[in-house]
Structure formats: structure tokens, C-alpha cells
Amino acid sequence: MTGVFGRLGTVFDFLVKLSYLNVLCLFYSLLGGFFLGIFPAMAAAMTVLPGVCRNEDLKIGTEFKKAAILHFKKANQLGWLFSILLFILYVDFGFFRSFGSIAALAASYVCFILMAVLFFSLLFAIPLLVNYGGSVISCLKNSIKLTLGFPLLTLSAAICLSAALLLFLAAPGLLPMLAFSLPFCAIQFLCSRQFRKLAS
Predict the structure, then answer these.
(1) Distance of CA 26 to CAs 13, 21, 67, 149, Å?
(2) How far is CA 48 from CA 34, 54, 69, 120, in A?
(3) What does pTM read for this prediction?
(4) CA–CA separation, 24 vs 87, rounded Å?
(5) Alpha-carbon gap, residue 200 to 180, rounded angstroms
(6) Mean pLDDT throughout 80-102?
């Protein structure tokens, strides 16, 4: 089918696949008790998404399961390393905010900036793990380098996540279908484009 209806059919097929990915992300997150499932589910989604975007004929459920098992250990190690660091910074942020001095206020701002850097680094660390492998520490360091060294990439990720948040606030009914897969798709797209630029 060609023309407008053909393009609409392609878009609809893509949205159906994203919805299926969203269900898989939710299912595997819950399967791991969320705490052990969310990061492998994210890694699996990042693994499958390029094939979905290229409209390849792949068994999404099977490939998702393989990727979740493959990345289970390192994705959890990486995710929880970032989570612990973020938690420590959040505690420090709250501690400094409890004081009224200028020095404490400045320290709280530093903590906030560091939390933002770590948050985006985590989003970039999973695609790095999926695409290049390597140790948890190397993914940690390289993701921070990406966040700080390519501010346009970080800004683009922030804009995409903000747009997704606004979309879900405006249409909460989309949450069960795209809450995980749409933001993951945006991050995967941005990271893949940046990886290609670095490789060329």
C-alpha cells in the first residue's frame, strides 16, 4: 500500500510495536520485582528498538527475552550504581537545603547539577552497554563523558523527555501503551545518531 494510507499504516504498525514493547518492559520489570527488572528491561528495549525502527521482521518477544537475560547482571549493576549515587546526592541536597547560609545554598545547587548529570548519564549508559559492552565502570565513565562532552545531546534528551511528559499529562490514556517505550525510543535514537557521528 502506497500514498497517505500506506504511510498511516506504517505509523500505526510502529505504534503497535511500541505498545507491545511497553507491555514487555512493564512485564519484565514486574517479573524482576521492579528493583531487579527495570534496568534489564530498559537494556532489552534498547536492543530491540533499532530493529523495530528499521521495520525489520523480528520476533520482538523472543529478542526482548534474550536481551533481558544477556544484560541482566550488568544492567542491574550499572543501574543500581547510578541509583545509589543519585540517592546519596539527593540526601546531600536535602541536607544543604535545610541550612540558610549562602554556602549551603551553593552546595545544594552543586548537588542538583550533579544529580542532573548522573540522571542523563544513566540514560546514556544503557545504550552504551547494549551497543559496545564493556565493564560497568567504563560505561559509567563514558556515559558521563557523553553527558558533559556533548551538551546538545543532553539538551535534546531533556527536550524529548519533557515532551513525552507533557504528552502523558495531556493524554494519560497513552501511559499504558507508551510510558516506557516512547522515552526509550527517543533516547535510543539520539544515542545511535551520536554513536554514528563518533564512529565516522
Answers:
(1) 20, 9, 15, 32
(2) 20, 10, 13, 21
(3) 0.86
(4) 27
(5) 30
(6) 91
Q: Is 57 helix (H, G, I), strand (E, B) or coil?
A: coil
How big is the chain, counted in residues? 200
Three-class secondary structure of residue 34 per DSSP: coil
Cell of 86: 543519585
Predicted confidence (pLDDT) per residue in 23-36, tens digit:
999 999 888 777 78
pLDDT score, position 41: 92
Q: What is the pLDDT of residues 125-144, one digit of tens each?
A: 999 999 898 899 999 999 99
What's the one-letter identity of residue 92?
D
What single string gives the DSSP state of each residue in 91-118? HHHHHHHTS-SHHHHHHHHHHHHHHHHH
pLDDT attached to residue 54: 81
Q: Which three cell numbers stand for residue 63?
A: 529478542
CA 150 – CA 195 distance, rounded (Å): 11
C-alpha cell at 101: 547560609
Ramachandran sector of residue 81 (left: φ over 0; alpha: ψ -120 to 50; beta: rest) = alpha
